[in-house]
Amino acid sequence: MDDLLVDFLTETREGLQSLDGALLQLERNPGDRQVLSEVFRTVHTIKGTCGFLGLSRLEGVAHAAENVLGLWRDGTLGVTGAGVSAILAAVDRIRAIVEGLEATGSEPEGDDAPLKARLEATAKGEAPAPAAATDAPAAESAAPAEGGAPGAPQSIRVAVEVLEDLMVLVSELVLTRNQLLQLARAEENAAFAVPLQRLSQITSDLQDGVMKTRMQPIGNAWGKLPRLVRDLSNDLGKRIELEMRGAETELDRQVLELIKDPLTHMVRNSADHGLETPEQRRAAGKGETGRILLNAFHEGGHIVLEIGDDGRGLNTDRIRQKVLAQGLASEAELAGMGEHDIHRFIFRAGFSTAAEVTSVSGRGVGMDVVKTNIERIGGLVDLRSKEGRGTTFTIKIPLTLAIAAALIVEAGGERFAIPQAGVLELVRVGEGQGPRVERIKDSAILRLRDRLLPLVSLKRLLRLEDGPPAEDAQGFVVVTQVGSQLFGIVVDRVFDTEEIVVKPVAPILRHITMFSGNTILGDGSVIMILDPGGIARASGLGVEGAAEAGAAAAAVARDGRRTAMLLFKAGDGAPRAVPLALVARLEDLPVERIEQAGDGLVTQYRGRLMPLHALPGVLPRGEGQRQPVLVFGDDERAMGLMVDEILDVMEEALSIDAAGERPGFLGSAVLAGKVTDILDTAFWLRQAQPDWFGTQAQAQRPRVLMVEDSAFFRSLAVPAITAAGFEVVTVGDGRDALRLREAGERFDVIVSDINMPGLDGHGLARAVREGGIWAALPMIALSGNASPAEVERGRESGFSDYVAKFDKDALLGSLRQCLALAG
Amino acid sequence: MQTAMQGATGAPAGAGLADDATRMVLTLTVRGQLCGVPVLSVRDVLGLQSITRVPLAPPEVAGSLNLRGRIVTAIDLRPRLGLPPREAGTPAMSVVVEVGGELYSLLADGVGEVLSLDAEERAPNPPTLDEAWKQVSLGVHRLGDDLLVLLDVERLLVIAQ
């Protein structure tokens, strides 16, 4: 291509870039002569040069536009919104022709007559062309963040390739430096130690310097947005003001390129779905002009981007309906979710709540793509929304993808790097140390504070395991977050963190989605970089929907509405279930270890004899087989129930139907769509006689306040009391209970433990009797020690009755008696 | 130079040298079988290297190794050619080749010498040749009592995933 033409194209491209912005400024402020003459000059230059180069189409369009601009500049014609639209259309045409010119070296074919006619009409003072254009209020809008004519910057053009090559070389240098440092550490008093230190310092500085050349202000990705928003506001008949903050925030150009499209989509989304029409806004008592706010800032090694609007916010009910209609979650699951969790459904594929599909968005592709693209570069997307107040999306992305801090771990004798960005914490697990890993059939879970964390064994996932899985998982759990899904990656060892240079894996290995790249460590060895997203997907954790369900399941029910249930098989027929919190351990005993003792079966368990009972229908196993056992109890006493097979763990809002009630079972509940028998643990713990449940009318359920610090006992008692027809609210100690009294909560009866941290049972009873709305309520004390002296003390404190713990029948009897007296 | 190779007609002076280079092969042995790879694609020959296993990779991929700061994927010719694994304790030799800008290491039992082979003396693959070999063999050369299988490096790297 002709050098002259190349120069012209470069210059024109730059001119066009500034034109959009200048024209919009002009539209807001029609009297701005400086901007006007700048626009005129640019168009004039384009016209002049293309005449010289013999580019007739360009010349024609530029000439027609220049005519209008000339009249504006001279003041013979007023600047109008329609006029600006016509000029913008001309600028677009020029851009299209220039692009064709770049691609082929000659002007593309096309008909410019209608456009020229529109410009001529504008020049004559007529107002043809698209209506919708409004005179933008000049005073209302804030001044743009940066305006004015750009001075000559102290910069030169460098081909992107050159920078990329430099980056690769620096990466190599960093790796070589790391290797040298490792060698030097092994050798004491080496003569090269001092120069090596210097080399190391220079390398670090060089790395920083080269990184800087790749950094670009995020404003570069925002350049097209003002124009986009303006066009959208015309198309949609909405008034929209775009405010951009932190445009100077810098990030790696590679990352910048990758977020451009998602960002555009989100702004489009805010304009289309987020903001209301002026009428709707007025009706809602807001200003007619909606606001979209873009905000960028640095936070740690990340850049945070916010895209917010002050529009109508997400309609939680509509999302809920749509979720149900699409079968993404059940009513019960939705009931257990917070508003935020429900909002996150919009990140699911094919999910759009826009009532009708518009040309702008609402085709149901989008937010899921945005999320996938951002997660692919190690970022996170989240949103917060308030109905009537607006929606804000937050994107958190790493500053650069080239060099990353990574945690070096070992599994199955191999080392791997896990990018630090996704690592939340490290937990040591194993016998006697920290939390315990529990196994449910093939899946392992970790109880971490109030969450159940699904675990992924790296060894197993990567098939590095030779023998059968070890009985007790020992090692470390790397708690990782992908999207909203938390999970743990089990590894054998953890080394320190290292700065690594991410290199893509060879093409023949790219099908392995568990790796995002590979790198060379300081000691010269090659290691693979794990992709937490790939691991989550490979383990069935990655999908947003699964993530939501998982997150909901992971939060152990605090309010008693949702209970984690362990599903198992015992005998033919329906699966059985028991609250997971009641099960101390799951064992898989060799049949040889089960012995006959007197009338029953026992096994030696942790240095004691543990009685074993077979659930009805469970047949004895043959020689050499293994027997699954649910272990109940605590350190002092334990008992085992023999079952056929452990099936699963799931979280459900437990509604026990007493219809399935029979000895040993509280009744039945629907779990995962199947009728499931719920085990009556108390029955088996006490090996008591078949229990009795009065069939009680469900209409008026007496409210029971249960004050109990032991989660174990709560899980035991709540299903039993609920099944007997009471509504149960549980709190952990006396103080929490009194807070409910202050909140005006009403109950029919209080059941309280005696020994509790904080305010104990006696203290609570005295406080209740002192006055307030609960002063006359019956109170039942629960204790492991029901000696006559203790019972007497309880009565003195104000308890109406005293019941031994684990005696469900006595408790239910006492409850009924108390209520009968009170009622 | 009487063996004008295909495409070399009308080549300027110096083409003879290029001809020489294209005819050069590096010989290597895989379980006693003599093989050859075109010297032009070879970047390096290395002795024993520490190789990092790549989990979940196809069995032909022995792992990755570090060649002066570049990551090289190692393909073990034994499984690639359908042969039993190398006996324990016998180190492999690594022939590093470049294909499509990427470096690969071909693990062989031994590396021999550089030979100049005449294309006209190349015999087509015998019909009875094992299928795994047929796919990667460009033809067979007779070298005294031995037969040399000329390997197609690009096709060696096509591995079913």
Q: How does this structure look, described?
A:
The complex is a heterodimer of chains A (823) and B (161). Chain A is 37% helix and 26% strand. Chain A has 823 residues and is an alpha/beta fold. In chain A, strands 10-14-15-13-12-11 form a 6-stranded mixed β-sheet. Chain A has a 6-stranded mixed β-sheet with strand order 21-25-26-24-23-22. The longest helix of chain A is centred in the first third of the chain and has 27 residues, at 160-186. Chain A starts with a helix and ends with a helix. Chain B is mainly beta and 161 residues long. Chain B has helices at residues 15-23, 77-80, 131-134, 153-156, and strands spanning 24-30, 33-38, 42-46, 61-67, 70-76, 93-99, 102-108, 110-116, 137-143, 146-151. A 5-stranded mixed β-sheet of chain B has the order 8-1-2-10-9. A 5-stranded mixed β-sheet of chain B has the order 3-6-7-5-4. In chain B, a hairpin with a 2-residue loop joins β1 (24-30) and β2. Chain B is globular and about 40 Å long. Chain B starts with 14 loop residues before the first helix and ends in a 5-residue tail after the last helix. The A-B interface holds A 172, 175-176, 412, 414, 462-464, 503, 506-509, 511-512, 514-515, 518-520, 524-528 and B 50, 52-58, 61, 63-66, 69, 71, 73, 100, 102, 104, 157, 159, 161.
